[in-house]
User: Fold WSC domain-containing protein from [Torrubiella] hemipterigena.
Amino acid sequence: MLCKSLISLSLAATAVLANKKPGLHYDPNTISSCAYWFDNDDGTPCETVRRRWEVSPETFHEWNPSVTVDCKNWNYWSYCVAIPDVTTSSTTRPKPSATAMAPPPRHPADSWIDRGCYLIWDKMPLDKYNSAVSSSNLNHSSCQNACWADSFRFAGFRASTECWCSNSIVGRSTDGDPDCNLRCSGNSMEFCGGKDKFDMFEGSYTLRPLSQTTSIPTSTSKPPSYTSESSTSPSKSPTSTSTTSTSSGSDRYTNKTDILTFATALVTLLSLRAW
Assistant:
């Protein structure tokens, strides 16, 4: 009995090990986004691997189609045991936006979405432990703001005092695990992970289009009022023109009278000569 127990413990210990690339033959239909592989080179039972990596039978079969949900066709192959940003909990959570990216630091995050409690293994840690955040006064906003300012998409909390930043999550969701309920050192109303588990939050920011409305600047100076000038200072030109027109008409009338008078006198003179 003791011998069997030691063997079981040994097998469980080997199940911890995983690599980023398969070291053995593997099913070509294995999920293409696999992040970590377990090399079954020592006959570790299928159930032990799934239990240690907290993968359900259905999910393990989805990742490794050659293995059935009851662990049939288990071979000395490499098997996928983790993929990025996976949630295996029965609790439905919003999926990360397909357009999400490392945010520009100058814009604050619109919101932070609680992605739940995760077990992150030592061989696939989060990107950065943020030592700039006070471990004795840790709260959600202090860590989230620090991660966002460093262009990280995720903020993780562990052991009440640790702030971690990352642009991806590789691990198992453990929602409902009683071990992930430690209070934050700087705010007893918030939870900051567990002894070896992380509360993960994802920040989001929506790019806003620039306004298409263009305002036309208005001038405060008034244009000169030509109407006002005309009414206050009448032009002398029309009067002059009118006078000129009247004078010309009078001259023409006078000239005609002189001609008629001259013609009459001439006719009279010629008549007298004829007599």
